[in-house]
Amino acid sequence: MRRLKRRLSNEEEFQVMKLVLDKFLWIGAGLMGWGLYVSVANTFGEGFWYILTGALVMLVFAWVIIREFEQIR
Asked: Is the dihedral of CA 25, 30, 33, 35 positive or negative?
């Protein structure tokens, strides 16, 4: 017997995408916060790399969001 795959509606796909990308947002914000803490507690040079990594995660997040919404149009 052949199984049929269930297709998600556009609204369901959007909700799943939001859940996944929200995790990237939290990871980026966490890295930037940790970098700020390390910068204040130790030296700016040590915390700068965490802040930079958090910013890169946020940029990837923004790029994925923009790409997905342009595909929908």
From this structure: negative
Supply the DSSP symbol for 35. Answer: H
Q: Give residue for tokens 């790029």.
A: 63
Does 5 fall in a domain? no
Work out how many domains the chain is built from and give that number.
1
**59's tokens:** 């940029």
What pLDDT shows up at residue 45?
A: 86
| pTM of the complete model beyond 0.85 | no
Residue recorded with tokens 């990837």: 60
Residue 49: inside a domain: yes
- On whether the CB atoms of residues 39 and 46 are closer than 8 A, the answer is yes
Per-residue pLDDT of 47-60, as tens digits, reads 899 999 999 988 88
Q: Which residue has the tokens 């910068």?
A: 39
